[in-house]
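One record is kept unedited as follows:
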Amino acid sequence: MYRERASRLTGAVVWTNSPSTGGEGRVLPDGCMDLLWHEGRLLVAGPDTHAHLTGDRPGTWAGVRFRPGTAPALLGMPAHELRDRRVALSDLWPAADVRRMTARVNAADDPAHGLEDLALRRAAETPPPDPLLGLLVAALDAGRPVAATADELGLGVRRLHRRSLAAFGYGPKTLARILRMRRALALARAGVPLTETAARTGYADQAHLSREVRDLTGLPPGGLLAAHG
């Protein structure tokens, strides 16, 4: 069973997932990065450019999902170095520090609470997120074109691309594709017909929407909605 709640860390989400049976899962790209706990280990999920297929073993996972663009400062590593990867936290930070953090999380009454406390402590030790990144995400999520967004933010397109690689793991056009797909899936799950969903989210037509969803998730919209509800 999957559950999530808003974190005490601004913009973040705390979640747990305890599948009752085996079976491959599908994590859709969302522009975010996660700090993970699984079977007593701490890991980091980098930004995905396509659906991440999980293993088929049941087991409890917990995570803190950071809003787009905020995790790299907390981790001390540009997002593009973690793109489409799941890595042990000990590969990024000193092993002795990670052992202490892992012991603290494992000793918590709930690993999700322990992870959240770890994220809060880390956030208190690092500068606040660049507000420009939040403006960029908001503009792209509203469907603003990349070039127009760069002008509005006072950045050239190339400079915006470099900053996006470090903050999100990929360029602003990829981020815009992912955010648009998320908007479309939210409408479709709410019962909006796919033809209308495509029109409302800026796709040329339903076929264009279907191609984009399949490219980013590996499934057509109908199959994806059936699998994820």
